[in-house]
Specification:
alpha/beta; UDP-N-acetylmuramoyl-L-alanine:D-glutamate ligase; four-stranded mixed beta sheet; 13 strands
């Protein structure tokens, strides 16, 4: 894809309105240095020098979109208290509309704390309790969706398996989006196996795709278009899920797009250096869906998403890509 086409799509991105639905998290990064081992146990002592907080989970998808469009909304649930307030403040600071975020005392805001010393990820600490979306809160979310549908161009469902998405709720969202003629992309979770129907695209990573297909994970073969196990996974999932497009992210091998009306399309990785893969999948589904909403072909959308992913893995932390960086990636 030439830079002129990329530039035209980037201009169209700014006018698009998207809704992200899914599990919301707060990502905490503690940056430090290690100069000694603890006398209490054979573990490093990390002296914290900097703390950073970012929207995580489905909120990171919205944050990726917000780099390109001012029309981003997010729907989900949080608990009450400091972490919930902090997440809301971060999202609104990015220009993301949080009117569809419900906060209730019966839920716990998911917080993932990563401790990093000398550019090395030392440990991750998770504070979470899997929620079960209460019927009255699900009904309120669907009522909000009915109100928002005329105002949006596309929906992304981001399932991190924390309980926001039940089969009943997911099916209701899919049915409404299909009836309204909206683009709907899904990032599924094999630990929360749901039946997906009438969706535009589904984006698992390689391990998730094998797990969702019920097939044993194999070693990758390059090029992916000659990987028989991966091609079989694509065939199984195409039959299992009612979707026009299956986009499988392959890490250092890029992405592979399965389409119902064309052969598989492989976009090799564009990453020059890999520092941190945190949130790379969020970037892929964000840019893929945004590109489709702007009129890109599925192959163009896969290329854009692949380039964006190649940029964010070269950054530390839960990162995003800017329009300028994405255009420069194609120019180079």
């Amino acid at each position: 894809m030439n830079p002129a086409r990329v530039s035209a799509l980037l201009s169209a991105f700014a006018t698009k309105r998207l809704l992200v639905i899914g599990d919301l998290m707060l990502d905490e990064f503690l940056w430090g240095k290690v100069s000694r081992i603890s006398p209490e146990a054979p573990v490093p002592v990390v002296e914290v020098v900097k703390e950073e907080y970012f929207p995580g989970g489905a909120a990171n998808v919205a944050r990726n979109l917000a780099e390109f469009s001012r029309g981003v909304r997010i729907m989900g649930v949080t608990g009450l208290g400091t972490h919930a307030d902090q997440l809301r403040a971060l999202l609104t600071g990015e220009g993301i509309n949080v009117d569809a975020v419900q906060s209730h005392a019966c839920y716990q805001t998911v917080v993932k704390t990563r401790i990093i010393a000398r550019q090395q990820h030392v440990v991750r600490i998770d504070r979470e309790k899997k929620l079960s979306l209460h019927p009255e809160h699900a009904a309120a979310a669907l009522a909000q969706l009915d109100t928002l549908l005329p105002e949006i161009d596309a929906i992304i469902i981001e399932d991190y398996g924390k309980g926001m998405l039940s089969q009943e709720f997911a099916s209701a969202v899919c049915e409404r989006a299909h009836r309204a003629g909206k683009i709907l992309a899904v990032d599924p979770n094999p630990h929360n196996p749901l039946a997906w129907r009438q969706v535009t695209a589904i984006k698992p990573n390689r391990a998730e795709a094998f797990a969702s297909a019920g097939l044993p994970l194999t070693e990758p073969i390059d090029p992916p278009t000659e990987d028989p196990a991966l091609l079989e996974v694509g065939r199984v999932l195409a039959a299992k899920w009612d979707t026009d497009n299956l986009l499988i992210t392959l890490g250092e091998h890029g992405v592979l797009l399965f389409r119902h009306d064309a052969p598989p399309y492989h976009a090799p990785t564009r990453a020059r250096e890999v520092f941190d893969v945190s949130g790379a999948g969020d970037t892929v589904i964000a840019l893929f869906t945004l590109a489709l909403s702007a009129g890109a072909t599925t192959a163009e959308a896969a290329e854009l998403a692949n380039h964006a992913s190649g940029i964010v893995v070269g950054k530390l932390g839960t990162a995003t890509v800017t329009p300028r960086e994405l255009l420069a990636s194609f120019e180079s």
